[in-house]
Amino acid sequence: MVGDGMDDLKDVILYHMRRDVMLSTLRKGTRYDGRPFDEYREIKIEYGPIKTAEGSAIAHIGNTKVLAAAKFEVVKPFADRPDEGVLTVNSEFLPTASAQFESGPPDENSIELARVVDRGIRSAESVDLKSFFIEEEKVLGLFLDIFVLDHAGNLFDAAALAAIACLKNTRMPKIEEGEIVRKEFTGPLKLKNYPVATTLAKIADYWLVDPSLDEDKVADSLITITTVEGHVCSMQKREGALTKEELLDCIDIAFKKGNKIRSILERD
Amino acid sequence: MKLIENGKRLDGRGLDELRPIRIEVGIISEADGSAYVEWGGNKILCGVYGPRECIPRHEANPYSAIIRVRYMMAPFASYEEHGRMGPTRRSIELSKVIRNVFENLIVKERFPNTQIDIYLDVLQAEGGTRTASITAAAAALINAGIPMRDVVAGIAVGKADGHIIVDLGKEEDNFGESDMPLAISRKDKKLYLIQMDGLLTKEEIKEALEKAEKAVESIHAKQLEALERYYKEEKREFKW
Amino acid sequence: MRKFVFPGDKISDRVLKIPYVYSDGKASYAEAIGILDSQGRYVPLESPYLPQVGDQIVGIITGVKPIGYKVDINTAGAGFLHSRETRMRFHLGDFIVAVVKMVDEAGNVDLKEARRLPRGKVIDFPSSKIPRLIGRHSSMINLIKKYAGEDIVIGKNGYIWIGERANIPLFISVAKFVEVHAPQEGLTDKVANMLSKMKRE
User: B233 vs chain C: nearest CA distance in angstroms?
Assistant: First the structure.
C-alpha cells in the first residue's frame, strides 16, 4: 500500500519535517488526500455483520474501519443503582489492524477511546438502562466491544459511530426464569437518540475535520466533540490547547457534521 | 442428537460438501498483507506484518526470520456468553500449531534477523476456525509477498453418525464421533497440520484423508481466485 | 500470454538463480505471486525489498554514531553508512539518496555515495512495483514529473522522496493509481489520460 509506513522512532525523528511539509501543502488549500479542510472521508455503515452477537456494526471512514459488537449477560446491578442494567464499553486495538498496535493488555489509548465512546452514549442517555431490570439482584449487562479493524486515522469518530450503529442493530434477548434464552429475541433495543463524535485537528492555523493518520501524527491540537440533536453530550481534548472562540467554532462544526452523520444513521 | 439423515447433514449439506467460502485479500490498508475469510458462519480477519526488525533483539535468528502467530477469538464470537479478552489455553495451543504450518512453508532464510507476525482474529465462530484461519493466513502471506514454497489451506474432516464427513460444522464438531483438522499444500499435497480427536479406524482415516485431499482443491482455487481478483483489480475502483 | 503464478508453481525446467525463486535441483518454482510474461519471464507482484548491490535507495537517518549513520531503508534491519563513505555530515531525520555498496549474509546493508535530500515527504510504495512507476526508459516517471514537478527521487527500496516544491497530493494520487493498476498493460497511456484529465478539472 502507498502509505506513511513509519514506526515510533521515526515518528519522533521526523515530526518537525513532517509537520512543515504538511503545512506547505495546507497553505495551498488542500490536504495530502485532496480533501477540503472541513470534509470527512467517505462514511459507510454495515449493520449486523456478526451474527453471534446480539447486535453489531462496522463503521468505515475512508480506510479506517471499526467493528462494534454487543453481547448481553445476566449480571448483578451496582449497589447504588439496583434497578438499572449495566453498560460496559471495551476497546481493542488489534495488532492485526496496524503496525503501531501490539498485543497485550489494553494501553492508555484504547482505554481512552472506550471511555470517550461510553461517555457519549451514557450522557445522552441513549439507552434506557432501567429497561434492563430483570428481578431483584438480576439485571442485563450489555457488553459493547469495539475492535479496530483498520487504523487509517481518526479512530474516535469511527468507534463512536460503530458503537451507536451497533446499538441500533441490537435486539433484546428473551428472558426466561431470570436467564437469557440465546438466539431468541423480544424486539429491538430502544434508542432515544444518536450521539455522534466529530474530531477536529489543528495544525498551525488550520482546523481539519476527520484527521487522516498523517494529520493525526502532527496535529498541534485534537478535540473530539460528541453531539446529539441540539446538545453536546461529551468532549475530550486529546492534544494541545484551544481558545474559547476556537472551542465554540469547533462545536458549531461538530453540530453541522454530527447532524449530517445522524441523517446517515436515521436513513439506513 | 441426529446429525445425519438420509445422507443429508443438519444444514442440508451432503457428506462431502463444503460450506460456502468467500475470501478477500488486501483488505487492511495499513498491513503488509491481509485477508478476510468467511467460511460458513466463521468470519476471520488476518493481518501480516513483516519481515520487520526482531524485538526483543536476543530472540533474533541470524540465519532466518522467526514467525509469530497470534490467534484470538473475539469475546462476541459465539452465540453463548460474552467471552474474555486475551489468550486462553486453547488459543495458545492453536497459535502454536498454526505457526508450525507456516514455519515449514515460508522461505525463512531469505530474511535473517527478522520477524514475521501473523495476527488472526476470529470475529464469528461456527466450527472450524483453525482451518479457516490457516486458509486466511496463507492468502495474507502471499498478499504480503512473504516467500513460500507452496500454497496451503485448512480443511477439517471427521466422522458423525458413522459417516466420514468433510468440513465439520459446529454441532458436528461438538457431537460427532471424531474431528480431524488438516492443512494441505497445493503442489506437494503435504500435510502441514494434523490434529485429531475422537475415534477413527485406519481405514476411516484413509477415507477421510482422501476426501480432504479432494475437498481442499476447491479451497486452494478460492484462495488463488481471491488473489487474482485483487491483482487484476476488476473490483477495486480507483477513487480520485 | 501473461498468466498468474503462485508459490510452488513451476516457472522453468531449468535451475534459475533469481530472487523469489527456489529450485529442487531440476526445475525452478515461484515463491511469490507473480506474472509469467509472454517471454516466460517471472515477475513477482509482491515482494519485500531485497537489497541488491548497486541499487539506488532513499533512506532516513535514524541513528548518528562516531563511525557512521544508521539509515532506515525499508528493510527489517537498518542500512549503515560508514563515515569514511561520505564527507557530508548528516543529522537525525535527514532524507538521503544513496547506493547499496554491500549486502552480507546476515542481512546487513552498507551504503555509499550518499547525498542529502532537502525538505520533503517520503512515502512508502511497494518496492516490487517501483519498476512500473519508473517505466521503460523512465517514461512513466518523466511523464509524472511533467505534472507534479521535478523534485521527486525514487528509491528501489520503495521509498520515494517528494520535495516540498512538488505537488505532493497529485503525486500521491498518481502513485496510488500506478499501485492499483500495476499488473495491467498500457499503464503509461492510462496515467497520461488521468493526468491530463486532472489538469483540465
Answer: 7
* CB-CB neighbors (< 8 A) of A5 in chain C: 74, 123-124
C65 within a domain of the structure (yes/no): yes
Cβ separation A56–B79 shorter than 8 A: no
d(CA A25, CA A8): 24
The interface pTM score, or ipTM, of the predicted complex is 0.90
For chain C, what is the radius of gyration of the CA atoms?
A: 19
Distance from CA of C14 to the nearest CA of A (A): 34
Record the pTM: 0.87
pLDDT tens, position by position, for chain A (268 residues)? Answer: 444 444 567 777 788 888 999 999 999 999 999 999 999 999 999 999 999 999 999 999 999 999 999 999 999 999 999 999 999 999 989 898 888 888 877 778 898 999 999 999 999 999 999 999 999 999 999 999 999 999 999 999 999 999 999 999 999 999 999 999 999 999 999 999 999 999 999 999 999 999 999 899 899 999 999 999 999 999 999 999 899 899 999 999 999 999 999 999 998 7
**Mind telling me how many Å the CA of B80 is from chain A's nearest CA?**
7
What is the chain C residue with the closest CA to B189?
A: C8
DSSP-assigned states of every residue in C73-137: -SSSSPEEEEGGG-SS---TT-EEEEEEEEE-TTS-EEEEEEEEE-SEEEEE--GGGHHHHH-GG
**Structural domain count of chain B:** 1
**Residue C147 has which C-alpha cell?**
505534472
The residue behind cell 481512552 is A112
- How many angstroms separate the CA atoms of A94 and A120, rounded? 23
Write the residue in A56, A63, A71 that is nearest to B75 by C-beta.
Answer: A71
Domains of chain A and any CATH numbers: 8-267 (3.30.230.70)
Q: C125 to chain A: nearest residue by CA?
A: A2
- Provide, as residue numbers in chain B, all residues whose Cβ is less than 8 Å from the Cβ of A92: 85
Whether residues A4 and C124 touch (CB distance < 8 A) is answered with: yes
**In this structure, is residue C49 part of a structural domain?**
no
